Amino acid sequence: MNSDIAEGKWKQMTGSIKEKWGKLTDDDLQQVDGRIDKFCGKMQEHYGMSREQAEQEFNRMR
């Protein structure tokens, strides 16, 4: 996914992200702001996922 597209859709996706991954806070989502690298870091931090797993989750949200 193109990073510009991801950033544009990010605000639309935050509600469903919070439902699916409740450990991610509003502050986390603001910091991520649609950037896959930051999303992966937060997923690794809160859920212990590998970077590859976090990227797969990010791509599933599109």
Task: Characterise this structure.
With 62 residues, this protein is mainly alpha-helical. It has a single domain (3-60), classed as YjbJ (Protein Yjbj, Chain: A, Orthogonal Bundle). It has helices at residues 3-20, 26-32, 36-47, 51-60. The model has no long low-confidence stretch (mean pLDDT 88).
A few lines on this structure:
This protein has 62 residues and is mainly alpha-helical. 76% of the residues lie in helices and 0% in strands. The chain has helices at residues 3-20, 26-32, 36-47, 51-60.
Strand % is under 5%
Helix content: over 70%
The CATH top-level class label: Mainly Alpha
| Alpha-carbon distance between the two ends | 8 Å
Specify the CATH homologous superfamily.
YjbJ
The radius of gyration is 10 Å
Q: How does the helix and strand content classify structurally?
A: mainly alpha
Biggest sheet details: none
Question: Secondary-structure map with pairings?
Answer:
Blueprint (H helix, E strand, L loop, with lengths): L2 H18 L5 H7 L3 H12 L3 H10 L2
Features:
single chain; 62 residues; 76% helix; globular; Protein Yjbj, Chain: A
